[in-house]
Write a structure and sequence with these properties.
The chain is built from 13 helices and 14 strands. An eight-stranded mixed beta sheet has the order 3-4-5-2-6-7-1-8, sandwiched between helices. The protein is elongated, with a radius of gyration of 26 Å.
Length: 417
């Protein structure tokens, strides 16, 4: 094994904890990304080298979805490499314990499987100097948080490794998006970060997947892979705001007090409706609510002096509708049949009549998170989560596009189970 055989990103993983490294002050590391990107090898080897260099006589945790998968994916790859560097190791399978000796230090590594919620009880009561969680996105939150709570030794650090799940996954929200505030080093891996893969093998993987699975497994993006309502929608359908004049303007609005409020500004150019800007306010996240007057003010900022044809509003938002009418806006109550609206919106997106522009981040985020309710009790229903920009887009498509295209025909959106 040669250090020169590692990619730059793998070398960062191998050295981030060393004194004098720019990342040495971090308390945790997350490596996420594409399959076969080399992150597991670099993470596992670095974890054991860190533990054996910085500690003696301490306990560490090594966790996977199951103990068998952990032995197969991590221990069988890392321990022989550690032995090649001069270390020795001994495993007691009945105790799920590996004892490693390296450069005069000896430490114990306990192996755990985080299969389900009950797994959290397995790890209670023990004190660790560090913990490695392989494929952490597959583990229940209770297990991961219990494992992290066990690391109370001075100088302890947390090591996370995973392939992406959906964008609403708790680990993505807490550790990927919140890496900076948690003093965590986050490194995103692609197949190009694995020097052991030939170009022919990389291309084969590129051919294996399409759509959202390509985004998750090849690009390493946290994209919803199961039950997406608009499962055909991908980054290639997003466009910059076109130059030139627009013929008409509408605003569509899904109004909420406790729930988020979402507004989209739509402009017509050459037969295509573009969502060029948006406003999105989550009162729960902001820990305050806005009044109807404040929302009306935000709508004026969104419009920016453009001449509106109408504002299309959630028909249940009676007080907001009245506020807008008093301010001189023409208000249209939205068509609110959910399934019909989804079919219309789906067809318009596929045919290029409806385009979401770059910068509409909340709408694009919800395109990934908007999913069917796959429970056995629900039939042809969407989950009432991450649906506020989706609702305002649906209001626009159902109320404007369906009305104006008298020959409009729709096809059922295939529900992915």
């Amino acid at each position: 094994m040669s250090y020169n055989s590692f990619s730059p990103k793998q070398k960062t993983v191998l050295t981030w904890w060393m004194p004098g490294n720019p990342h040495a002050g971090k308390e945790a590391i997350v490596c996420d990304g594409a399959v076969r990107s080399g992150k597991t090898l670099a993470m596992g080897l670095s974890f054991f080298l860190w533990a054996m260099t910085c500690f003696d006589g301490k306990r560490f945790g090594v966790c996977g979805k199951t103990i068998s998968s952990l032995r197969r994916n991590v221990l069988s790859e890392i321990l022989p490499r550690l032995a090649a560097l001069g270390g020795t190791w001994k495993e007691k399978r009945t105790e799920n314990l590996v004892t490693v000796t390296f450069k005069g230090h000896q430490n114990q590594f306990y192996i755990f499987g985080g299969r389900d919620e009950s797994s959290a009880s397995l790890i209670q009561g023990i004190t660790f100097a560090g913990i490695l969680l392989d494929e952490v996105a597959l583990m229940p939150r209770s297990f991961v948080e219990q494992a992290c709570a066990r690391c109370s030794v001075a100088g302890s650090r947390l090591w996370f490794n995973c392939n992406p799940a959906g964008p609403s996954h708790w680990f993505y929200k807490n550790w990927i998006l919140g890496a900076e505030e948690r003093n965590c080093l986050r490194l995103h891996f692609t197949m190009e970060d694995n020097p052991s893969l030939t170009e022919a093998i990389r291309q084969r993987y590129h051919r294996l997947y399409t759509g959202v699975f390509y985004r998750r497994f090849i690009l390493g993006q946290w994209a919803q892979a199961e039950g997406r309502v608009y499962d055909f929608f991908g980054p290639d359908m997003v466009r910059p705001v076109p130059a030139g004049a627009f013929e008409k303007w509408y605003v569509s609005c899904d109004y909420g007090t406790v729930n988020p409020t979402s507004m989209g500004l739509w402009g017509l150019q050459d037969g295509v409706w573009y969502r060029v800007k948006e406003f999105y306010f989550n009162s729960r996240a902001a820990m305050r609510q806005m009044t109807d007057e404040e929302y009306a003010g935000e709508l004026e900022k969104l419009v920016g002096g453009r001449k509106l044809t109408a504002v299309i509003v959630d028909p249940s938002a009676a007080s907001f509708i009245e506020t807008l009418r008093r301010k001189g806006h023409r208000v249209m109550k939205a068509e609110n049949d959910v399934l019909s609206g989804i079919r219309v919106t789906s067809d318009c997106l596929k045919e290029g009549k409806l385009v979401i522009c770059e910068g509409c981040s909340d709408c694009l985020r919800e395109m990934d998170e908007y999913v069917w309710d796959l429970s056995s009790q629900a039939k042809d229903r969407v989950k009432k989560e991450n649906d506020h920009a989706m609702d305002d887009m649906r209001y626009f498509a159902s109320t404007v596009l369906k009305r104006r295209d008298m020959g409009f025909a729709v096809c059922a959106v295939a529900r992915k189970v």
